[in-house]
Write a structure and sequence with these properties.
31% strand, RraB_dom, alpha+beta, Ribonuclease E inhibitor RraB, single chain, elongated, RraB-like_sf
């Protein structure tokens, strides 16, 4: 399988090269950053009360005065699915004065 030559495509190609089966459901975690704890908690509450089926965790970032909202979603990590979900989280984060900070995949051992 080939992917577009952009950040998401490169990550997916590396995952595929590492032997990860991208045709199966995986836990994909999308990261959002906020300057204010209230904004982070407001976004987390919004997602928890939505039909997004995402698990949300709010915690302080390693950077002082920055808050993380990590959103785990079970999904097939196709390029199209990743881009669509990342755009959805970016729009939500902006609504709550934050921004999307990428994504990653958790692997079960």
């Amino acid at each position: 399988m080939t992917f577009p030559n952009d950040e998401n495509g490169i990550v997916l190609a590396e995952m595929q090269d590492a032997g990860i089966d991208l045709s199966k459901l995986l836990t994909v975690e999308f990261f959002q950053l906020f300057e204010h704890e209230k904004d982070a908690k407001d976004m987390a509450k919004f997602i928890s009360n939505s039909d997004m089926n995402a698990t949300v965790n709010v915690h302080p970032d390693q950077t002082p005065n920055v808050w993380d909202v990590d959103c785990k979603v079970e999904m097939i990590p196709s390029y199209e699915n990743i881009v669509a979900m990342e755009e959805k989280f970016e729009q939500l984060a902006q609504k709550f004065n934050g921004f999307n900070d990428g994504w990653g995949v958790q692997q079960d051992d």
